[in-house]
Design brief:
By secondary structure, this protein is of the alpha+beta class. The chain is built from four helices and four strands. It has a single domain, classed as Alpha-Beta Plaits (2-Layer Sandwich). It has a four-stranded antiparallel β-sheet. The longest helix is centred in the C-terminal third of the chain and has 12 residues. It is globular and about 60 Å long. The chain starts with a strand and ends in a 13-residue tail after the last strand.
Length: 116
């Protein structure tokens, strides 16, 4: 078990804006990889495959951070805040909706004491 944080940031682009959004998000990768605590920051796009379903969120960042503080620091960076202000919150942005979820590899009560 680790203190790592696994993040999926899923983006639903506005109609006809998927390719443009992908390029804007791709530009965030290089600086993010230089952040302290960043283990993985990989942008992916949904593909057609017989074993997979499609959804409305075809552009996804797959992130792994050393711990919750490293991920929080990432969110405080001006580049990330600017992306959310200009592309998610602004009416002129490329994003119709976003879902950000965080996960742990630690089970529930994994370090609880064992009583016999």
């Amino acid at each position: 078990m680790t203190s790592r944080v696994y993040v999926l940031a899923q983006f639903k682009p506005k109609p006809g804006k998927e390719a443009e959004l992908f390029e804007v998000l791709k530009a965030l990768e290089p600086d993010s990889y230089r952040e302290e605590g960043c283990i993985q920051y990989m942008l992916t796009r949904q593909i057609d495959h017989p074993s997979a379903m499609r959804n409305e969120y075809p552009v996804v960042f797959n992130e792994i951070w050393e711990d919750a503080e490293a991920w929080s620091a990432h969110g405080r960076r001006q580049q990330i805040q600017n992306f959310f202000q200009t592309q998610v919150e602004a009416d002129t942005g490329l994003v119709a909706d976003v879902i950000v979820t965080a996960y742990s590899d630690e089970g529930h009560d994994f370090d609880a004491p064992v009583f016999e």
